[in-house]
């Protein structure tokens, strides 16, 4: 019997780090579903298309199996903004549903299960997941983390304000869209990371997941 873990939360809440640590600890296959939407956004921009245009976005979403999800170019905030624009479109989301569900149900050989991180894993993609976590932090803390990731100690206040601004815009779009908005599933376990370090967050999540196994 394999286990499925759903991990959702807003931008820069620490999902990626926690997902990697849980995957390694519990021996799970990991899918960062944000990379799917980032890849779609990236492909649209590569083709000189418009991420808000459904035809452009859908064409890119249909090519997802042939797209390199580990391309480092996907990590920038400009690609994240394009990602949240394609992600607001129901037809794009629908195209990516099967890919995600297939991943969830088919761990790699030798793995004990799967973990998917994103915005709608516990609510839409895997509503029957064995364990659901919703991870969050206040927007200033999240902007500071993303700012340090992108610019390091040499970054300026102007760059921080810019990151804060785009993160707020992305939160707003992700939370208020009609199609699979970002929200905590009713039975998800809430972890606020505003005042916690990675090890504390991991330990809290580890105990919760163990209790569900
Ligand atoms: O890394 P970060 O949390 O900043 O973003 P991400 O998880 O890579 O997701 C990028 C964008 O993709 C988000 O702002 C969402 O608009 C979209 N997304 C989504 O709609 N549903 C998901 N399951 C994952 C990401």
List keywords for this structure.
213 residues, alpha/beta, Rossmann fold, 5-stranded parallel beta sheet, 13% strand, binds cytidine-5'-diphosphate
Task: Write up this protein.
The chain is an alpha/beta fold and 213 residues long. The chain has one domain: P-loop containing nucleotide triphosphate hydrolases (Rossmann fold, 3-Layer(aba) Sandwich). Helix content is 53%, strand content 13%. The protein contains nine helices and five strands. It has a five-stranded parallel β-sheet, sandwiched between helices. The protein is globular. The chain starts with a strand and ends with a helix. The relative contact order is 0.21. The site of cytidine-5'-diphosphate has 17 residues, from helix 1, helix 2, helix 4 and helix 8. Cytidine-5'-diphosphate (CDP) binds next to helix 1, helix 2, helix 4 and helix 8.
The CATH topology turns out to be: Rossmann fold
Distance between the termini: 10 Å
- Structural class comes to alpha/beta
**Beta-strand percentage range:** 5-15%
Element-by-element helix/strand order = EHEHHHHEHEHHEH
Helix-residue proportion = 40-55%
What Rg is obtained from the alpha carbons, in whole angstroms? 17 Å
The tally of domains stands at 1
CATH class: Alpha Beta
Low-pLDDT runs of 5+ residues are none
Compounds present? cytidine-5'-diphosphate
Average of the residue pLDDT scores? 95
CATH architecture, please? 3-Layer(aba) Sandwich
Q: How is the largest sheet built, in terms of strand order?
A: 2-3-1-4-5
How many beta-strand runs?
5
The rough form would be described as globular
CATH superfamily: P-loop containing nucleotide triphosphate hydrolases
């Amino acid at each position: 019997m394999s286990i499925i873990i759903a991990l959702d939360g807003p931008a820069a809440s620490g999902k990626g780090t926690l997902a990697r640590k849980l995957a390694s600890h519990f021996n799970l296959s990991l899918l960062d579903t944000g990379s799917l939407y980032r890849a779609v956004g990236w492909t649209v921009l590569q083709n000189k298309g418009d991420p808000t245009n459904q035809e452009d976005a859908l064409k890119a979403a249909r090519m997802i199996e042939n797209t390199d999800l580990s391309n480092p170019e996907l990590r920038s905030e400009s690609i994240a903004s394009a990602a949240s624009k394609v992600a607001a479109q129901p037809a794009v989301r629908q195209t990516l549903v099967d890919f995600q569900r297939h991943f969830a149900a088919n761990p790699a050989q030798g793995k004990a299960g799967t973990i998917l991180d994103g915005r709608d894993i516990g609510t839409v993609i895997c509503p029957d997941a064995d364990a659901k976590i919703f991870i969050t932090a206040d927007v200033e803390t999240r902007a500071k983390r993303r700012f340090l990731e992108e610019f390091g100690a040499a970054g300026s206040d102007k760059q921080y304000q810019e990151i804060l601004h785009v993160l707020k815009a992305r939160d707003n779009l992700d939370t208020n869209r009609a199609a699979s908005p970002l929200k905590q599933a009713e039975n998800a376990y809430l972890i606020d990371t505003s005042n916690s370090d990675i090890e504390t967050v991991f330990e809290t999540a580890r105990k919760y997941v163990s209790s569900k196994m």
